[in-house]
Amino acid sequence: MRVRLICVGRPRNPHTNALYDDFTSRVAKLGLDYDSGWVAEERSGGRYSDEHVTERESRSLLEAVGKSSKLIALDRRGKQFESERLAELLQRWATPAATIVLGGPLGLHTSLLERADALWSLGAMTLPHELARVVAVEQIYRAMTLIRGVPYHK
Questions:
Q1: Which of 46, 50, 83, 132 is the most exposed place for a label (fewest CB within 10 A)?
Q2: Is the four-CA dihedral 74, 77, 78, 79 of positive or negative sign?
Q3: The domain that contains 20 carries what CATH number?
Q4: How distant, in Å, are the alpha carbons of 38, 101, 125 from that of 85?
Q5: What global pTM score does this model have?
Q6: What domain range is 58 assigned to?
């Protein structure tokens, strides 16, 4: 099983980065081949409309995903999953490989959402971008503990 998380925008907050790093090290100990990356964030306003910004960012994300990986888009319009269901889906998505993408402040372009194999929502609330990244990896860790039978999920 292999999972990759690609975000729009370089993570800068040292506090959320530390928490993110903690969960990525936990995931690695459970045997999941996990890595992450980011693509450049485009600036809206000026010469680029919001639509154009999301299209450019989504194009960069799609280029980073490649063709051989299942594409899972984190999007508020996606489905919310209970932990047990997410564990089942993660096994299916990540065999052999899944790439989870997280858009920038404006979200993901329709072209990427239509290409996605699944849409996953972290909830109806708006989260700061870097916190959403932490929540995603924590949920991946929680799913892996369920898959491996490790006590964590309560």
A1: 46
A2: positive
A3: 3.40.1280.10
A4: 27, 19, 21
A5: 0.94
A6: 2-148
